[in-house]
Structure prediction request, 210 residues.
Amino acid sequence: MSTAAIAAGLLEILQLLETAKDAAPLIKELAAKARSGATFEEVLETARNMAVTSEADAQAEINRENQ
Amino acid sequence: MNHRQTLHLLIWYITLNAITVALQSCAFFQSYDEPVVVVDPVVCQPLPDAAKVTCRTAADGLTKGYATLAGFNGQIKRKKAAGIYTREQAQALLDKSIAARKDLDKARDVFQQGDYAKTLSQTGLLDLAIGALEKELAKEASR
Prediction:
């Protein structure tokens, strides 16, 4: 395996860890909602809303410098 | 310093960072084990116990899939704001993330129609898509 391939592999690991770090508080929030007696359908809708809201936030950041 | 030495230094830098983040992230990975299905989904309720396990697994995969995509989008936003991604890179990644979310929506629709086994195979395929997205995020960040 080349040195560059090892570097690329390590970067991927780093990325995986970073994603887990970002998703962790969201999963905890969903788990807390589930434990509080919410129906699964409510928890799933909350999770979907998190994804959709974050898409809008990211899009706003991408568009920001063009304004 | 030649090209090879620079690469070695880069690997050491990345390794040290990976170890640091790994140590910080152990607890974060554990969050993926937290149950987000406490009350059985409506489609799982009439099933026999053995089938309920598969049904709950599909439900868990759907929910955590959305949370993972929200995590991706947060990173895209942060890395664009920090200047790590160009506008074009960030937009391309966000488009792929939105496409993955729409695929997850389709899997959710299938689940709500009661085909939890098909949902499980769809979320499995989505895991592969999310894995590919991970690689792309890493690749763009390293450019």
Q: What stands out?
A: Helices of chain A lie at 3-35, 40-64. The CA atoms of residues 47 and 59 of chain A lie 19 Å apart. The two ends of chain A are 46 Å apart (CA to CA).
